[in-house]
Amino acid sequence: MSEIPTELVAMRHSIDNLDQALICLLAERFKITQNVGVLKAERGLNAADPERERAQIDRLRRLADETGLDPEFAEKFLTFIVTEVVRHHERIVRDLDET
Question: CB of 99 within 8 A of CB of 38?
Answer without folding.
Answer: no
